[in-house]
Amino acid sequence: MNTTRISLRTAFFFLLAAGTVTLAGCVVATESDENVFEEDTSSSSDAILNGTSVTEKYPEGATIDIGTSPLCSGTLIAPMVVLTAGHCIMGPTTLTVKVGAESRTTTGSAVYDWTAGSSKNPAQHDVALLFLNKPIWLRWYPTIEQTAVPANTPVTNVGRMHNGPTSTLWGADVYDLNYGTMINAAPPYSGTFAFDYWASNVLEPGDSGGPVFIKDTHRIIAVNSAFGTLGNGKQIGLFARVDLLHAWITQQIATHPAPAPTNAQISCVFNWAEVAYSNLFAPAVQQPLQSSPPFVYRYYPGTNSYLGAAWASASAPHQGVASPSSTYPVKHVFFMDSTGIPQDQGTVGYWMKQANCL
Question: N or C: which end of the chain has fewer CB within 10 A?
Answer without folding.
Answer: N
